[in-house]
């Protein structure tokens, strides 16, 4: 598909460096965890998880996201998607644990809501650098119980989400969904492995995307050769055993870069 | 088993350059899960390149447009990927390489030799990388010199991949043959462009790029047909093949084997599907061997 034209209806400032952009198009068929390619015309096109049927939540990190932050309500950008494979939904009565770090909360908040609607009891471990950086606290709380942690202790447990997980009985959960910085996901992965619940888990990965549709091979991970843009971005913990997760990623040229 | 320029292919379908070929693991996956008879790597050059900015590929109703801009980690970094592919793919691994002149091609080929690729494919045909690809591949003298330079230092087959963006592709094919090529590969993408009418912006980050997929098949068939007549060496057909029927058509035009690129979008195991489709077709038609198909259309009129 060619990018469709999305007009910005509303911009919501989640934190000094994170904004949610609501647009005039609804991705009715999207599964939480799927992403869109956001075309900031004349600059770049970058992948973003859908934080709802008609929004993306963006952290300002570089050229394209900075340009996006200059846009105002009424301005527009291009959108292609929804692409990729999302998180699998729990069945009624199953317990769900959502583990979100930083802007990783963006694709997880519609997941927590969908899990709740499916009749699952949802718990969320939500982590951020400090209180002001916590994302979607209210939406997660409406979906179920929330355990908060901040690196600086300004709210909730002082420390990382893994510190919260240490105090939880993970064996009660039927589905565990994870998204956040790769270092965090790698330590969550090890923890879930130790507690023998990896088979219930799913992780949303971040790799450099070029085509975004599964043809070019820029986003393939080792050792499986799976494409993050098409076979993922959500993978089961089992699929990621013996993978590059937490070890290295690749830059736009395909060179390995240590994490 | 199927022999092509001395290489033993599992079947006559080959993964095209630049498709799922950035990592060794991904090449192995296309061979195992996809069923490709051989695989070609992403084109590798002398220096790391990040490629053009995105969007670098879009799907159109009739095919695909891309302007990746030859992103690649350069040969020193790619060696480890080639080694992985060679170790585990279980089928021939062909290294696609590019450069701006004969010396650069030589440098890259020499640099990759320690990983023992089964053949080299020279990319003198990418339509959207300044100073590379079609920029050198439209000039018969340069194509001959580049082919000869690489032939000079390697003792594996050398294939030369041609651009259709010239007035006479057989002239470039002849140059490759004169330079000592073991086969030519036709075609790379056709120059193309798309514009977003809401904003007026060209869609691709590089503004224009190359058209592939279904839309280019008739062009590829004609190029293969003409090259088959003009050359002694085998022609490998590529462009818009997405079914066994397409592959048979390409072979009847004169292709000794077919490469498949964009169609991996539909499904990864397209290679198995095509090769079993060809087998069933041969049986139904009573052809003893797939070689009977090659150039069949030339005998009819
Ligand atoms: C499936 C997926 C979902 C994502 N969802 C979100 C989200 O909901 N919210 C959010 O803020 N961020 C998300 N990201 C990350 C986001 O795509 C990058 O932060 C963004 O591309 C940065 O672009 P930039 O030009 O501002 O930064 P740059 O200065 O270009 O780069 C900064 C870093 O961003 C990453 N990046 C840049 N371009 C790309 C690309 N084409 N593909 C992947 N990564 C890239 C690289 O890691 C790079 O090191 C997601 C990434 C993926 C792969
Ligand atoms: C995303 C993409 C990247 C490509 N990269 C290369 C490349 O690096 N080297 C090359 O020789 N051809 C490259 N090509 C061209 C293909 O190998 C092939 O010649 C062309 O796409 C036509 O075949 P198809 O219609 O089966 O895709 C690329 C094509 C696409 C779509
Ligand atoms: S970004 Fe091209 S295959 Fe994933």
From TrEMBL, chain A:
Give cofactor(s), names only. [2Fe-2S] cluster; FAD
Sequence positions that bind [2Fe-2S] cluster: 211, 216, 219, 229
Q: Which UniProt keywords apply?
A: 2Fe-2S, Electron transport, FAD, Flavoprotein, Iron, Iron-sulfur, Metal-binding, Oxidoreductase, Pyrimidine biosynthesis, Transport
Can you name one GO molecular function term for this protein? flavin adenine dinucleotide binding
Q: In which pathway does it act?
A: Pyrimidine metabolism; UMP biosynthesis via de novo pathway; orotate from (S)-dihydroorotate (NAD(+) route): step 1/1
* Domain named FAD-binding FR-type: residues: 1-89
Record text on cofactor binding: Binds 1 [2Fe-2S] cluster per subunit.
Coiled-coil stretches: none
Supply one GO BP term: 'de novo' UMP biosynthetic process
Q: How does it assemble?
A: Heterotetramer of 2 PyrK and 2 PyrD type B subunits.
Protein function: Responsible for channeling the electrons from the oxidation of dihydroorotate from the FMN redox center in the PyrD type B subunit to the ultimate electron acceptor NAD(+).
Member of which family? Belongs to the PyrK family.
The protein, known as: Probable dihydroorotate dehydrogenase B (NAD(+)), electron transfer subunit
Protein species of origin: Methanosarcina vacuolata Z-761
TrEMBL record, chain B:
Q: Which family does it belong to?
A: Belongs to the dihydroorotate dehydrogenase family. Type 1 subfamily.
Instruction: State the organism of origin.
Output: Methanosarcina vacuolata Z-761
Originating gene: pyrD
Enzyme Commission code(s) on record: 1.3.-.-
**Gene3D superfamilies, per database record:** Aldolase class I
GO biological process: any one? 'de novo' pyrimidine nucleobase biosynthetic process
Concerning InterPro entries, the annotation shows: Aldolase_TIM (IPR013785), DHOD_1B (IPR033888), Dihydroorotate_DH_1 (IPR024920), Dihydroorotate_DH_1_2 (IPR012135), Dihydroorotate_DH_cat (IPR005720), Dihydroorotate_DH_CS (IPR001295), Dihydroorotate_DH_I (IPR049622)
Pathway annotation from the record: Pyrimidine metabolism; UMP biosynthesis via de novo pathway; orotate from (S)-dihydroorotate (NAD(+) route): step 1/1
Q: How is the cofactor bound?
A: Binds 1 FMN per subunit.
Name of the protein this chain belongs to: Dihydroorotate dehydrogenase
All copies of the Dihydroorotate dehydrogenase catalytic domain together span: 3-282
Q: Does Lipid metabolism show up as a keyword for this record?
A: no
Is Zinc set as a keyword in this record? no
**Which HAMAP family does the entry mention?**
DHO_dh_type1
């Amino acid at each position: 598909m060619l990018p469709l034209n999305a007009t910005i209806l509303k911009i919501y400032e989640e934190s000094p460096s994170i904004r949610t952009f609501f647009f005039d198009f609804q991705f009715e068929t999207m599964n939480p965890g799927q992403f869109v390619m956001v075309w900031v015309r004349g600059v770049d096109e970058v992948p973003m998880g859908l934080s709802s049927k008609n929004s993306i939540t963006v952290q300002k990190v570089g050229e394209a996201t900075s340009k996006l932050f200059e846009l105002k309500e009424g301005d527009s950008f291009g959108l292609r998607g929804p692409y990729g494979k999302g998180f699998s939904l729990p069945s009624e009565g199953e317990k769900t644990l959502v583990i979100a770090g930083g802007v990783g909360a963006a694709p997880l908040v519609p997941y927590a809501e969908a899990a709740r609607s499916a009749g699952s009891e949802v718990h969320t471990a939500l982590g951020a650098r400090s209180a002001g950086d916590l994302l979607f606290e209210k939406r997660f709380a409406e979906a179920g119980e929330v355990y908060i942690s901040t690196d600086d202790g300004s709210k909730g447990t002082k420390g990382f989400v893994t510190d919260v997980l240490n105090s939880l009985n993970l064996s009660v959960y039927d589905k565990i969904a994870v998204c956040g910085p790769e270092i965090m996901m790698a330590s969550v992965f090890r923890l879930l492995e130790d507690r023998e619940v990896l088979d219930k888990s799913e992780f949303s990965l971040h790799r450099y995307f070029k085509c975004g549709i599964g043809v070019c091979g820029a986003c393939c991970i080792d050792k499986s050769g799976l494409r993050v843009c098409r076979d993922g971005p959500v993978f089961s913990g089992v699929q990621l055993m013996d993978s590059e997760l937490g070890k290295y990623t690749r830059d736009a040229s395909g060179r390995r870069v240590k994490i | 088993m199927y022999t092509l320029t001395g290489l033993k292919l599992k079947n006559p379908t080959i993964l095209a350059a630049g498709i799922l070929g950035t990592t060794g693991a991904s090449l192995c996956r296309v061979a195992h899960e996809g069923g490709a008879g051989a695989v070609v790597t992403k084109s590798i050059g002398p220096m790391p390149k990040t490629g053009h900015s995105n969007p670098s590929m879009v799907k159109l109703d009739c095919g695909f447009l891309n302007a990746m801009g030859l992103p690649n980690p350069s040969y020193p970094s790619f060696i480890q990927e080639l080694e992985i592919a060679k170790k585990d793919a279980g089928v021939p691994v062909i290294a696609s390489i590019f450069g701006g002149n004969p010396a650069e091609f030589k440098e890259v080929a020499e640099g990759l030799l320690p990983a023992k690729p089964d053949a080299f494919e020279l990319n003198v045909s990418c339509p959207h990388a300044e100073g590379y690809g079609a920029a050198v591949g439209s000039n018969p003298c340069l194509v001959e010199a580049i082919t000869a330079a690489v032939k000079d230092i390697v003792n594996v087959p050398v294939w030369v991949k041609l651009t259709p963006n010239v007035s006479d592709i057989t002239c470039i094919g002849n140059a490759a043959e004169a330079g000592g090529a073991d086969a030519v590969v036709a075609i790379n993408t056709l120059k193309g462009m798309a514009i977003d009418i809401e904003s007026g912006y060209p869609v691709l980050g590089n503004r224009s790029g190359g058209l592939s997929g279904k839309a280019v098949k008739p062009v590829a068939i004609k190029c293969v047909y003409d090259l088959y007549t003009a050359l002694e060496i085998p022609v490998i057909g590529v462009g818009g093949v997405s079914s066994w029927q397409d592959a048979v058509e390409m072979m009847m035009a004169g292709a000794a084997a077919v490469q498949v690129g964009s169609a991996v979008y539909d499904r990864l195991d397209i290679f198995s599907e095509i090769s079993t489709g060809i087998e069933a077709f041969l049986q139904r038609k009573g052809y003893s061997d797939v070689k009977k198909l090659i150039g069949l259309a030339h005998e009819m009129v």
